[in-house]
Design goal:
- The chain is an alpha+beta fold and 150 residues long.
- The protein has five helices and four strands; from the N terminus they run H-E-E-E-H-H-H-H-E.
- The chain has a single domain, classed as Sufe protein. Chain: A, CATH 3.90.1010.
- 43% of the residues lie in helices and 19% in strands.
- Strands 3-2-1-4 form a four-stranded mixed β-sheet, covered by helices on one side.
- Helix 2 crosses helix 5 and helix 3 packs antiparallel against helix 5.
- The longest helix is centred in the N-terminal third of the chain and has 15 residues.
């Protein structure tokens, strides 16, 4: 395994074990539940938006290391971003996992989220990595019942 791949794996494992921004945001209208029936992952994403910018993002729930790490890294990445940039990050993340974005370009466009480039080699795990992102979009749209990866 290459040194870079090992580093990526370690980042995912670290965020899976000790997720950042884990927990609820009380008193926010922007939240949604997400579920991946294939893996059993269940996440709730909470957002606080002010002036079109994400001022706080958190998540709660349980799942495999990839879904938890993805939610953890996603909340870090979107903090302070305007909603248009968050949407672009969603599009770039999807493109990375589906082979439409060259992994060499990913760090410049996605920062730390580029660690998920290897997930594209395991198609069944793509839904684990994208669950938090789909749930984020449901929260932005005010769909509290959220979404499912199915």
């Amino acid at each position: 395994m290459s040194d870079l791949r090992e580093l990526y794996q370690e980042v995912i494992l670290d965020h899976g074990r000790t997720p950042r921004n884990f927990g609820k945001i009380e008193e926010t209208e922007l939240h949604a539940d997400g579920h991946n029936p294939l893996c059993g992952d269940r996440l709730t994403v909470y957002l606080e938006v002010d002036g079109g910018k994400v001022v706080n993002a958190r998540f709660d729930g349980s799942g495999c290391a990839i879904s938890v790490a993805s939610a953890s890294l996603m909340t870090e990445a979107i903090m302070g971003q305007d909603l248009a940039r968050v949407e672009q990050m969603f599009q770039d993340f999807q493109a990375l996992l589906t082979g439409k974005l060259d992994p060499e370009e990913a760090p410049a466009r996605l920062g730390k989220l580029a660690v998920f480039a290897g997930v594209r080699d395991f198609p069944v795990r793509i839904k684990c990595a994208t669950l938090a992102w789909h749930t984020l979009r449901a929260a932005e749209a005010g769909k509290h019942d959220g979404c499912s990866t199915e």
